[in-house]
């Protein structure tokens, strides 16, 4: 990984969301629900909803799930980042105001960056399993539930996990842009947004 930071400005985030939203709508139509992986997925999820929402239609519900990577440096390099800890999950009570379940729904999972794919893999596997269990309980089929994924940045590197395309069930993986394997500095993590923005402009990322 390069030690040079890649500074990302808010304008860049906004434009990437706008670009990808147009493709999402063309490919699959408006999602029924957006699932943001916290904390990096919160802001892009909210921005992309602006461009996915159709005029005079209700807002797309956004649900948050919290996942943390457990890194055991003493266990060897091959195990780093492989264990994901669930810290927050879906609020099915809130979702019930919009529909009865996720079965047969068009779902968009959002995060800020695909580094090792470990977190995205975990989210897809767990969400798919939740829907499968609900479908079995209700005696319904899960064949129409579609999972798509959107990340602002995909690091162009060897990944530690691989998404199960079959479980996406026709959904699509979207990355706003591919980037080198560098530390990405996002504006919502900055304690000096003015300096951050200057650096993002210098790098052409504002």
UniProtKB/TrEMBL annotation:
One of its GO terms (cellular component) is cytoplasm. The keyword Glycosyltransferase applies. GO terms for biological process: GMP salvage; hypoxanthine metabolic process; IMP salvage; XMP salvage. Pfam families: Pribosyltran. The keyword Cell division does not apply. It comes from the Eukaryota. One of its GO terms (molecular function) is hypoxanthine phosphoribosyltransferase activity. This is Phosphoribosyltransferase domain-containing protein. It comes from [Candida] arabinofermentans NRRL YB-2248.
